[in-house]
Specification:
Helices cover about 75% and strands about 0% of the residues. It is mostly helical and about 120 residues long. Residues about 1-10 and about 15-20 have low confidence and may be disordered.
């Protein structure tokens, strides 16, 4: 239960991060990648969610600010791995959500670092 609560807190921080120009130079594309994560959750099918996760992960890697590059790589790797499995049809909705929750809990420190940076630097 604690893992799931942590996941919801992190997702809540990330979900509302993008709605306009970014105050941090060069981070607009990085912030936009989190809008893709938010949209992925409403995509309707595990395959569509997986496709969106893979795309968001690539954007995160390409546009991460230097100060959070390493923790962003951890988060992007998690999204990419889960996204590839979901995209291939290997997961149903329930297993996708469980795998995401477990993965986020296992990488909580890096994901929290990214979430805090996003909450401070990406417009809501």
């Amino acid at each position: 239960m604690r893992r799931l609560s942590l996941v919801f807190v992190v997702v809540a921080l990330l979900a509302g991060c993008y709605s306009g120009p970014s105050p941090v130079s060069g981070s607009t594309k990085f912030c936009a990648s989190f809008a893709k994560v938010k949209a992925a959750k409403a995509s309707g099918t595990p395959k569509a969610t997986g496709t969106a996760f893979v795309s968001a992960a690539a954007d995160m890697r390409a546009n991460a600010p230097a100060v959070i590059k390493a923790p962003t790589a951890t988060y992007a790797d998690l999204l990419d791995n889960i996204g590839q499995s979901a995209k291939s049809g290997a997961m149903d909705e329930q297993s996708l959500q469980q795998t995401l929750a477990t993965g986020m809990a296992d990488k909580a420190t890096d994901i929290a670092t990214v979430a805090i940076w996003v909450s401070k630097n990406c417009p809501r």
